[in-house]
Amino acid sequence: MLQDYKLGIRMLVKYPGLTIAGGFALAIAIGIGAGWYDLWGKLVAPTIPLPDGDRVVLIETQNVLTSQPEPRVVRDFLEWRREVRTIADLGAYRTDTRTLNVSGAAPQWIRIAELTSAAFRTARVPPLLGRGLLDSDDLAGAPRVVVLGYDVWQRALDGRRDVIGSVVKLGNTSATVIGVMPDGFGYPVNHHAWTSLQLRASSAALGGDAISVIGRLAAGVTLQQADAELRLLGERATAALPATHEHLRPRVVRVGVIVGVGDLAQLALTNLPVVLVLIIACMNVGTLVFARTAMREGEIAIRSALGASRARIVGQLFVETLALASIAGAVGLVIADGALRWGLESVFDDAPFWMTPGLELTTIVYAGALAVCSAVMLSLLPALRATSARVQTHLANLGTGGATLRFGRVWTGAMIVQVAFTAIAIPSAMESTSQAMRMLTIRAQFPSGDYLAAQIDVDRPSYEDASLLQTRRGRTVGALERRLAQEGGVIAVTFADRVPGTGSLHRTADVETVPGGGVAFDDRVSVSWVGPGFFEAFDRPIVAGRAFHDGDRSPSARTVIVNEAYARGFTRASGLASPIGSRLRYAPSPELESDDPGYAETVASSGQWFEIVGVVRDFGLDPGDDGNEGSFVFHAASAETLSSLAMIVRVRGNPAALVARLPVIAADVDAALYVREGRTLEESIWRRDLGLIVPTGALIGVTVLVLFLSALGIYSLLSVSVSRQTREIGIRSALGANPRNVLAQLLSRAALLMGSGITIGGTLVMIQIARWEEDIALFAMWLGLTSLVMLAAGLLACIGPARRALRINATEALREI
Fold first, then answer.
1. Cα separation of the two ends of the chain
2. pLDDT at 623 over 70
3. Contact at 8 Å (CB) between 434 and 699?
4. Could you please report the per-residue DSSP string of 96-129?
5. Residue 212 is inside which H or E element, if any?
6. How wide is the angle at C-alpha 501 spanned by C-alphas 618 and 654, nearest 5°?
């Protein structure tokens, strides 16, 4: 084996073109496969970096009627804590966000886990400094305490060792620091600090705060046993409280595991994309390997004559290919590791604590398996074909310059399939790239560098009534608006439910032009709730109808404003000049998640009719694939009732300085105000565009690689095929054949081969494009360019060897017959 590896390395050096091109393709394929395997594992069934982390579980309560989780389970939790025997340290937690105020440091937004001491004990991780939460901290009226995360300790308190006993402010609430957790600890999900959860006992079903229930499987208990016990308790609650619990079903799941993805589905989703990528890469690299094997037919014949068995030669060719795949696999792992590290650090701002950078050991083993599979796919068929003939036949052909390794139906078919696949993939990839670049270019034209945006909210003590919170929220946000308006260079201050240009809430809307007259127009629209002065802040005037007034912000108001894109669609569908005065109603949206911005407003607006009172100019921040703005519907909102609030400030000059000062300004207005995700609008849009830029860049790279490998593989196979016909061409020339006719015949065969693949692939592409109602002319252009590259590679592969064969002396060619 070692000897074969040494020979394999020498062969890689001897054929640098194959090594570089094929190795790079395999590295990309194995890197994509390993990266996908590692990421999918972290997302679906992660390894929890806690002592016996696979035994940490959640109790989730699902409403089977709405398919939504039910978090208002304080009463149920208190009963579970008394009754459950299969789960130890059963506790509860809820996530909150606060502004951490420390004397001498700038305020900073942190995510806090309010949790019971049992929930804190479930992690079984001792603090780095001080102590954790105790049962006494859960009692009503107990002094407020907080355990800080390592990063917060370093940033806000400079990593002081004497921090224990210090008093900090979480919003308006003072808390004593009792401990500091180790670096990387973010339990239960992605939290920065931990404080006691002092639950109010509630006898009302579905009463009290929204909480999550967490615990650890008792010794010797399986997940199935715990789940069975909770289901039994759920049935008991259903019988006792049918009005509220009829459709509620508690279940036990492991932390981090996505429920509903079965073993077979997980196996398919984990491996099927990897297998497809690997097959595509091996199909392209395989032509290069087969061409190289054909060039070594003489060497194989001599080794066979010297006594090497067929199994020995096949094994050697496999090991040579395995050497290439092993090197490619190592490079692929480096690529995958770098890409995942960058993604987790740059794209996932608040990734769960178990999604740590670095590849798992199982991923490295998986990449090794991919390398072996690649070597098998690349070497087995060429090796078996090269050793299929008798030794005497090999040697006889070697002595006369003939060949036994023919490019028969299998490889002819493979070449046609490869050309067809290239003809399908390249135009589709180029069109997707073109659409992405078009959207990025349009968004770049918006002056987003003049704006800053941040998520704003106020701390809500668990005991505060919702109506009191609304009043306090509206008053505090209004004070912040007035304070920001006094800052130098500020032109306008407004708010909305989300930052413009960073994603939208999509709904299907029906329109009636006459009440009861039936649907005249329906469209998939983006919905946004906006505050006073929103359109003016973005220089988007009302082009028809009227703007919002204060009366439109009343909860009972039923008015909306649409953009020009919506008005154009309405006119095309209905034949009417303007949608002003028409009524709009949303269809149900079961795909919405409860934590989506605008979710509460969406639920409240379902089934309601809204009058279209105005048309506003398109923003240019949400273009579709065709470059045109999507349809938007805007609702008037107030700070009191908006469930998610993004404040937008337009400034004169660079807004970066105001972004840095915004948390301090907010804390001066009210210590309960917290600011998160404060950025320039340009940076916010760029973060959204990362989801488009990264895949587009990867698509361009893969497209170029596929085109290059396809052209190189076709060139190699056809070049070797024509070279092996050297004696035949020389004999035909000696017998009087016209050299031009011989060359034309060879080129026509290559053209027929290329044309067959292009025709098959092009036909499939055009059928699909016609079905999608896309721009056929544009796809035809990309298909034409791809076809030219493929055809040029095939023809060039034939011309060189054919011209060399035609220069053979006729007498020498006849002597070899």
1. 41
2. yes
3. no
4. EEEEEE-TTS--EEEEEEEE-HHHHHHT----SE
5. strand 212-217
6. 105
**Dihedral (Cα; 700, 704, 709, 715), 10-degree rounding:** 160
Q: Are 293 and 405 in contact (CB under 8 A)?
A: yes
Radius of gyration of the chain (CA): 34
Decide if pLDDT at 191 tops 90.
Answer: yes
Q: Over the stretch 643-673, which tens digit does the pLDDT of each residue have?
A: 788 999 999 988 888 988 888 898 888 888 8
Check pLDDT > 50 for residue 289. Answer: yes
Distance CA 387, CA 247 (A): 67
The more confidently predicted of residues 780 and 448 is: 448
Tokens at 27, concatenated:
């590295």
Q: Which amino acid is at 561?
A: I
Closest CA relative to residue 625, chosen from 794, 442, 793: 442
Average pLDDT (506-528) is 85
Residues in CB range of 291: below 8 A, 6 or more apart? 713, 716, 717, 719, 720
Per-domain residue ranges for the chain? 1-46+258-406, 53-254, 448-687
User: In which band, very low, low, confident or very high, does the pLDDT at 547 lie, cut at 50, 70 and 90?
Assistant: very high
Q: Mean pLDDT over all residues of the chain?
A: 80
Structure token digits, residue 52: 């016996």
CB-based contact 696:437 (threshold 8 Å): yes
Other beta carbons within 10 Å of 309: 11
Please, what sign has the CA dihedral across residues 384, 385, 390, 394? negative
> In this predicted model, what pLDDT tens digit does every residue of 681-709 receive, in sequence order?
888 888 777 777 777 777 677 667 666 76
Are 562 and 541 in contact by the 8 Å Cβ rule? The answer is no
Q: Determine the Cα–Cα distance for residues 168 and 175; give it in Å rounded to an integer.
A: 6
d(CA 580, CA 348) in angstroms, rounded, equals 42
Q: Which of 277, 61, 53 is nearest to 186 (CA)?
A: 53
